Structure formats: C-alpha cells, structure tokens
Amino acid sequence: MSDFVNNFWSIYIAVITIVGIFGCLLLLILTARKKVDSAADNTTGHVWDGDLRELNNPMPRWWMWLFVSTIVFSVFYLIAYPGLGSFSGQFKWSQVGAYEAEVQKAEADLAPLYARFTAMSVEEMSKDSQAMAIGANLFQNHCAQCHSSDARGGKSFPNLTDNDWLHGGIPEKIHETLTQGRQGMMPPMAEAVGEAEDVRNLANYVLSLSGSPHDSARAVLGKDKFVACAACHGADGKGMQALGAPNLTDDIWLHGWGEATIIDMINNGKPNIMPPQAKENGGKLVPAQIDVLTAYVWSLSNKPSTAN
C-alpha cells in the first residue's frame, strides 16, 4: 500500500492536472488559428446522406469565451482548493474537515436533547419512547451491520435479544462493551488435548454438555480432556463472563454447532472482535449517545414497556 501514498503519486497527479489544463488551452488556441479552405458555398466538403453538408462557420464567440473562462476558473480553483496532489489549497479545505465541522454542528444541535437523558438511569431511559427512538436509530446506523436490524445477530455475531451474554448483560457491562469494544480469542487447543481422536472425543463431550446430538461413547472418553478447556469455560462448562468465555451448556452456539465445527474450533481457535463505538476510542459516538444506545441494547433483552 505504501507504493501508492508516496510523493511520486502526488507529483504525478499534479503534473497530469496541469498538463491537462494547458493542453485544453493549447488546443483551443491552435483550433482558433487554423484556417480551413472552404468551397464557394462556405462548406468544408464533407457530405453525409447524399445532401447533408457541413458549413465552415466559426464557433460562436460566447462559446469560445465560455471555454476560456472554464480554464481560468480551474486555475484559480486549484490555487484555492486541493486538487494538485498533496497541495491543500490556500483555503485549507478538506472533506475530512467539512465532515468534522458538520458532525460538531450536529452534536451541538443535539446536545439539549441528550441533556435530558443524562439525569436518567438506563432503566428510566428504556421506558422513554423518545430515548428508545433515538437508540433504535443509533443501533441501525452503528450496530445492525453485524447484529442485524432485528438485533438477533447471526453466525459469529451475538443475538442481543436473549439473555446469553459473553461479558454480562447488566447496563454497566453493555456500556463498557460499547465504549471499549471487545477482543475475544479462543486459542488453538489441539496440542493441549492430544491426538485427532482425542479432539473428536472432546468435541462430542462438549456437545453432550448442552444435550446436543453426540456420540455418547466418545463423550465419555472426551470428558477427561475437558480439563484443557476448564480454565476458561469452567469445570462445569458454564463459561466465565470475566473472560468472555461462552456457556457451553445452554445450546446457544455463536460460531455454529456440530462435531465438525467444534473440532475446527479446537484445532484452529477463533478470534472475535467487537470494535469500540466511543469517539475517544476510534468510534463515532459521543458519551451521551453511548448512554442512550446502552439503554436501547439493554432493553432488547429486558423488554420494558415504553411511555412518553
């Protein structure tokens, strides 16, 4: 990627732009000076369809001056605004700057509205129809891409409408997740488990914990191998929210289920990343928006009734 952001490309773009402008000007001058011999009837000699002849009339002066004015305008535009490679222009305008200015204005306009919510608890906001309407919009813009528009998620993306939480579903944990993001990591465990048959036996034992279809004989053989998993998932397989380790006994499978899927997880591990949404951590949401979104996400699995 570095090959495309070095100084050569900035210079290349600037040169192409300048050559293009002066090329148009040169073409206009040469065309205006060129004299075309015409017949006595002021035609160029070109004939189409038997009787359609091209007249040798000069271009209208207004058109010529309009062409010249666009060239002059382009020169002043490139001095004032970015367009010549990395040159930022005299006005220092940029798309990023314009976007940030619009965001700041929007935040200032919305500040009085969010101020009403700052004194409210998550439970109170979850019962406020205006707060929930704003939360729903925030969710659709920033969360639905992964968790889907109905918040039920999909493979590798948690369902937010149930009570199965990797890191905890209390408001404080949801707020923490939205602010800081999460980086989950299931490490490859095949080496700690043993041979391929041991891995298969362990996979069947894991399936047995939730009552999922499994080979009971292999599950018995794989029980002792679960000690390699207990450090994160607990000896009973019910997981640890402090580590983000899922509960293996509830028949809810984030990355899919079945013997082959679990064997793949044991052999190769699985990373899972939830990006931070807070502006100070690289996201796009200010603290007041995080608070409202926290209340909305919390409400999805607590189903409070809304009121004005």
Can you offer a commentary on this structure?
53% of the residues lie in helices and 6% in strands. The chain has 13 helices and four strands. α9 packs across α10. The longest helix is centred in the N-terminal third of the chain and has 27 residues. The two termini are 52 Å apart. 21% of the residues are buried.
Key descriptive features of the protein:
single chain, 308 residues, mainly alpha, 13 helices
Strand content: 5-15%
- What is the SS-derived class? mainly alpha
Head-to-tail CA distance between termini: 52 Å
Number of helices: 13
Mean pLDDT: 90
Count the E strands: 4
The major sheet is characterized as:
2 strands, antiparallel
What percent of the residues sit in helical stretches (DSSP H or I)? 40-55%
